[in-house]
TrEMBL record:
This is BRCT domain-containing protein.
Length: 21
């Protein structure tokens, strides 16, 4: 479950950087 949670957080960070760029 930790892996799934980390994946969700990772996706959120990637999306956030995408929007900022």
């Amino acid at each position: 479950e930790k892996y799934v949670l980390a994946k969700k957080i990772g996706i959120k960070l990637v999306n956030h950087r995408w929007l900022e760029d």
